[in-house]
Amino acid sequence: MKRREFLSYFGCSCCAIALHSCTTTPITGRKQLKIYPESVINSQAEKAYRNFKKKAKLSKDNKTLNDIKNIGKKMEIAISEYFRRERKKDPTSNFNWEYILVNDDKMLNAWCMPGGKIAVYTGILKITKNIDGLANVMGHEIAHAVAKHSVERASAATALNITTAVADAFLGGAIGRTRNTVGQTTGVDILKVGIFNPFTRKQESEADYLGLAFSSLTGYNLNEAAEMWKRMRKMQKGKIPPQFLSTHPSPTNRIRQIKRWIPTIKARFPKIKNI
Predict the structure, then answer these.
(1) Mean pLDDT over all residues of the chain?
(2) Domain presence at residue 275
(3) Looking only at Cα atoms, what is the longest distance across the chain?
(4) Which of 141, 152, 206, 224 is catalytic?
């Protein structure tokens, strides 16, 4: 097959995917590809969260758990109220919020599954230090769900599989044979570093921005976000991979960007009263 003919077919397949469903993220307005149904993602997330709760060792620290729930509830209200005032669709209207505290002092982590399923690990508390630090971490994780990043990632993976299959078909199976020769893992890692890592860092930066917005709407101290990342950088000193090989922005770049955003975010997203 001639190169021009191949590119024509390949381009058509990509256009068909792109035209299927292009949307924008709430607040930031970044264009997103969404070809994977959100309802399917949310359903899978709810099952995964249920299974995780059965296997995880949940903390008996009710005071901290109540703090987490209180922060979450305030953000739930603030986010919905913001979109109501802006006369825009609330991206959390189909969320079934839930919060757990996982007893694992070695895990410096927190996450929010699609649909508002949140887990905070006791290990992250040594980094957050206080309510404002905890709120900024939770705001960031909630932002991933609000921006539908999981749907976007699933859609990107689907699109990649489709276009790779189309390309492989027109190349007579050359891609598949190459992967078998050099090893499947090598092929996947190359794709990950070259395609998905920059895209994922963009999502992480977007979640930083949105998380700050949610913390501001709820009245928490945004400066604690930068302080929290300083503590994280100190704890992970010497263990942080180069940014090129990481799916997250480096802590130093993160701190710098957060400090630049804070004045604008405070002005654009003032605290919503009576929360």
Answers:
(1) 81
(2) no
(3) 67
(4) 141
